[in-house]
Design goal:
Helix 2 packs antiparallel against helix 5. It contains eight helices and no strands. The protein is elongated.
Length: about 180
């Protein structure tokens, strides 16, 4: 006996708004998207506007931070790579955070943006917050896990991805191939 898998998780009957549980399920990822998007935009802008952070050395610089965490990181070779050009690494992280945050907030290429956010969080966890003891004091691991649902699900509602998908469906249904 064959068993089918239900694929209509977001559909409702005509005239049925689905009830509050269905609505909550549909919008469950939206608060996470907003939080991560705002946080990463803020983190990127904060780094870009902090003149001390973008320096190779000195108090509050990305260079000094990387030298401080080098011996306690899980991947010292990754830190060594960043130390070849600390300010370049600082700009790459800041611009990456900004791009990830904007993409997540707009819901544009959401899965790609979320993957970028997960990779940034993973690299920061393996370098900067690896030595946090106990491990849950380091927030980068929590951010890595928070990006995972958005990597898997994308932004099905209230997003540019959903708008573009809807337009593609309309064109295909209308015979414009």
């Amino acid at each position: 006996m064959a068993h089918g898998m239900r694929t209509d998780a977001y559909t409702t009957r005509p005239g049925d708004d689905g009830g509050w549980r269905d609505q909550a399920t549909r919008y469950a990822l939206l608060p996470l998207r907003i939080f991560l998007g705002v946080t990463f935009v803020y983190a990127g802008l904060d780094k870009l506007t902090d003149s001390a952070f973008m320096k190779d050395s000195g108090a509050g610089s990305v260079g000094d931070m990387m030298r401080t965490v080098r011996d306690s990181s899980a991947l010292p070779s990754l830190v060594d790579l960043a130390l070849k050009s600390p300010s370049g690494f600082g700009y790459a992280i800041a611009l990456g955070e900004l791009a990830v945050g904007i993409g997540t907030l707009l819901g544009l290429l959401t899965r790609l943006a979320a993957l970028g956010g997960a990779l940034i969080s993973l690299s920061l966890w393996l370098t900067v917050s690896w030595a946090s003891d106990p491990y849950y004091y380091g927030n980068d691991l929590a951010y890595l896990m928070a990006w995972t649902p958005l990597v898997l699900a994308g932004a099905p509602l209230l997003s540019l991805d959903a708008l573009l998908r809807s337009r593609r469906r309309q064109r295909t249904a209308g015979g414009y191939r």
